[in-house]
Amino acid sequence: MRAKILLGLRIVIAIILIQTLRYKFTGHPDSVYIFTQVGMEPYGRIAIGILELVAGILLLIPKTVWVGALLTIGIIGGAIFLHITQLGISVNGDNGILFYTALITFILSCIVLFYNRKNIPFLK
Fold first, then answer.
1. Half-sphere exposure in the Cβ direction for 124 (13 Å, CA)
2. Cα–Cα distances in Å, from 110 out to 20, 76, 85, 93, 124?
3. How far apart are the first and last CA of the chain?
4. H-type helices in 1-124, by residue range?
5. Which residues contact 107 (CB under 8 A, 6 or more apart)?
6. Distance (Å, whole) CA 41 – CA 37
7. In this structure, which long-range contacts are made by residues 23-31, counting pairs with CB atoms below 8 Å and at least 24 apart in sequence?
8. Are 112 and 13 in contact (CB under 8 A)?
9. Rounded to an integer, what distance in angstroms lies between the CA atom of residue 30 and that of residue 35?
10. Which of 15, 93, 105, 114 registers the highest number of CB atoms within 10 A of its CB?
11. What is the pLDDT of residues 31-82, one digit of tens each?
12. Is the dihedral of CA 7, 13, 16, 20 positive or negative?
């Protein structure tokens, strides 16, 4: 039962990461605005998109779940930090949807990493 729940969490995280890629890779105005505000447009937007794609894929491969979760924690932790320090909770009138989605993704990734900690080679 726990394995199915963890698989579900991994899939949810991967979907969240991968569904945002269309905004980053197509240069959606909201994505451009966000990355411009933090001084990372356009290279940071594309690089973060690539890292999110890699993290989403790694989360779906059983042997690399811990890498995907750790990478997601780093990426999303950075997003949360930028929301708190530069962007604010609500960006372009989204009522905080991006921020709260990032928080949920961060928490779920922490849960997935915790349950996969025995697979981390340098912690064995």
1. 6
2. 20, 11, 22, 28, 19
3. 25
4. 2-19, 21-25, 29-37, 43-60, 65-82, 97-115
5. none
6. 8
7. 24/48, 24/49, 24/52, 25/49, 30/91, 30/92, 30/94
8. yes
9. 9
10. 105
11. 999 999 999 999 999 999 999 999 999 999 999 999 999 999 999 999 999 9
12. negative
**At 124, which amino acid appears?**
K
Using a cut of 0.85, tell me whether the model's pTM lies above it. Answer: yes
**Contact of 52 with 75, CB cutoff 8 Å:** yes
Give the Cα separation of 6 and 118 in Å (integer): 14
Contacts of 104 (CB under 8 A, 6+ apart): 16
